[in-house]
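Fold it.
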Amino acid sequence: MGIKPWAGHMSRLELTAEQAAQLQSELRQSASVQVYRRAAALLGAHQGRSVSQMAALLGVTRQSIYNWVKTYGRARGRLNLVDAPRSGRPSVWTPDLDAVLAETLRSPPHEQGCPGGRWTTALLIERLASRAGKRISGGTLRRRLRRLGLGREG
């Protein structure tokens, strides 16, 4: 297996028969969009398809295709197409915010000196900011409410 000059401006990916079979299997069975895209791109590179065509078909950039071929072109044996775990950005949510949110939701806004008959995202954001000193985004609040079983499912 390896990378050989590819018609155009890249390298053609040479896969072993086992790797090609693995990628075909990933296309049929993977529940991950990322794994499916990588498998399809690698098989396309193996078949000599154009990078532009594959990128357009898979909804990724040409650079992604180049990166995948470069990364997996060096691999020996089975290809691991799953994303590596990443820590991501630290959560702004704290146990203190949980406590303030729970206390806030115990009664309607008008009983706490806020306008309105029911809590909205905007009202909750303002209430959390004034009570906990932290301003959070609407997305962060909605995700937290969903995790607590209090938000909409969609």
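The chain has seven helices and two strands.
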